């Protein structure tokens, strides 16, 4: 059976460009791939025919020979080159088929690598995390703080190249700088990370003694960090370029500082609001008066307690809370009263309280109201 014209097989004109040939080949290969045509018994032979045609036409020398002599160029003696379907041509077929293999399965396998042929030259350094604890006072005021961060920095001996004397790395002989090697397994060509260079595409003949060829060394760095006023637990501060140094001269990662605000002995925080629980004596709550309370800035504020105040009563001090992060005003501070029952009474104090109790029938409205309701409840249950 006579072979079909290679241009007809790919569905292109004789003067098609290399890009047009490649585009047509990929389209045909996808359409005729055996894994997609289980119900077509001729799919495999048609798929091989497409690969044979593209293998001949993608090479300028083979294409010129085919344009001049037709199929006879590959039958021996005319073109001088190997046949597209066998011998040395299998390597070319594998290379050509890997293109369509990437298109068919690239998404599932994670896609192609970036750069020329997926090669990986320099690697970006990792981002680092630093947990920083600050006091509530520091969170209120903001501060400049120096921290020590253990990280990897660029090797000064080789200037990050990883090679002794700062020499440039050379292309890996195993993968020719591609970072990947291809192996044929039956009908498929499988691409794997190069075992020699680990996917970098380069090797260092004389590794730097200071860094062992990595281009970076471990070192503690001192950094001055600006903590803005108003930070809360969970606030994240990003310092660009202050993370781990890149591999083989790659860009540096970032440093992320996570803030944790310590609990305070006097104040509880809720966003921009501060709460302070202030104990007051029974006498002060009953008679009323003035008390001094602390504020987060280290100052004092005088608060007037109304006569007859009960536990839980709150009073607001405007503008005495926490500032909003990066501007936006200041919150308020709330004073909450906790009326303290006297303890360790003397005999005389007990006598005075008993006397007060006898005279104070109308001094406890809450209690009177409660027990009136209780009596009503019991009476209703009896009836």
TrEMBL record:
CXXCXGXG motif repeats lie at residues 155-162, 172-179, 194-201, 208-215. Binds 2 Zn(2+) ions per monomer. Residues 5-70 form the J domain. SUPFAM superfamilies: Chaperone J-domain, DnaJ/Hsp40 cysteine-rich domain, HSP40/DnaJ peptide-binding domain. Zn(2+) 2 binds at residues 172, 175, 194, 197. Keywords: Chaperone, Cytoplasm, DNA replication, Metal-binding, Oxidoreductase, Repeat, Stress response, Zinc, Zinc-finger. Its cofactor is Zn(2+). A zinc finger (CR-type) spans 142-220. The keyword Zinc applies. Residues 142-220 form the CR-type domain. It holds the Pfam family DnaJ_C. It is found in: Cytoplasm. Zn(2+) 1 binds at residues 155, 158, 208, 211. One of its GO terms (molecular function) is oxidoreductase activity. Participates actively in the response to hyperosmotic and heat shock by preventing the aggregation of stress-denatured proteins and by disaggregating proteins, also in an autonomous, DnaK-independent fashion. Unfolded proteins bind initially to DnaJ; upon interaction with the DnaJ-bound protein, DnaK hydrolyzes its bound ATP, resulting in the formation of a stable complex. GrpE releases ADP from DnaK; ATP binding to DnaK triggers the release of the substrate protein, thus completing the reaction cycle. The J domain is necessary and sufficient to stimulate DnaK ATPase activity. Zinc center 1 plays an important role in the autonomous, DnaK-independent chaperone activity of DnaJ. Zinc center 2 is essential for interaction with DnaK and for DnaJ activity. Belongs to the DnaJ family. Homodimer. This is Chaperone protein DnaJ. It comes from Psychromarinibacter halotolerans.
């Amino acid at each position: 059976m006579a072979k079909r014209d290679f241009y007809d097989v790919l569905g292109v004109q004789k003067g098609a460009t290399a890009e047009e040939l490649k585009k047509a080949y990929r389209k045909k290969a996808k359409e005729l791939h055996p894994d997609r045509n289980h119900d077509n018994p001729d799919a495999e032979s048609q798929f091989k025919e497409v690969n044979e045609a593209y293998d001949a036409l993608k090479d300028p020398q083979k294409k010129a020979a085919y344009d001049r002599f037709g199929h006879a160029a590959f039958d021996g003696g005319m073109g001088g080159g190997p046949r597209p379907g066998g011998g040395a041509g299998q390597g070319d077929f594998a290379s050509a088929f890997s293109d369509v293999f990437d298109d068919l399965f690239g998404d599932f396998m994670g896609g192609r690598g970036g750069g020329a042929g997926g090669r990986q030259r320099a690697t970006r350094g990792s981002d680092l995390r630093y947990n920083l604890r600050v006091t509530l006072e520091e969170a209120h005021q903001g501060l400049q703080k120096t921290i020590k961060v253990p990280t990897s920095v660029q090797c000064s001996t080789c200037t990050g190249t990883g090679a002794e004397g700062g020499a440039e790395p050379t292309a890996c002989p195993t993968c020719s700088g591609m970072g990947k090697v291809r192996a044929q397994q039956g009908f498929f060509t499988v691409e794997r990370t190069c075992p020699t260079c680990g996917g970098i595409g380069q090797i260092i003949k004389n590794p730097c003694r200071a860094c062992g060829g990595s281009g970076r060394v471990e070192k503690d760095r001192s950094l001055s960090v600006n903590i803005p006023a108003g930070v809360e637990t969970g606030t994240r501060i990003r310092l660009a370029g202050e993370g781990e140094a890149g591999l083989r001269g790659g860009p540096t990662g970032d440093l992320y500082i996570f803030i944790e605000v310590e609990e305070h002995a006097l104040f509880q925080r809720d966003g921009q609001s501060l709460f302070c629980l202030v104990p007051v004596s029974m006498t002060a709550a009953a008679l009323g008066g003035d008390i001094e309370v602390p504020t987060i800035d280290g100052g004092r504020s005088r608060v007037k307690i109304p006569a007859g105040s009960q536990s839980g009563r709150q009073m607001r001090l405007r503008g005495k809370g926490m500032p909003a992060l990066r501007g936006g005003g200041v919150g308020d501070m709330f004073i909450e009263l906790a009326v303290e029952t006297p303890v360790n009474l003397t005999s005389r104090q007990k006598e005075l309280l008993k006397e007060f109790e006898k005279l104070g029938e109308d001094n406890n409205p809450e209690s009177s109201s409660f027990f009136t309701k209780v009596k009503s409840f019991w009476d209703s249950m009896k009836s």
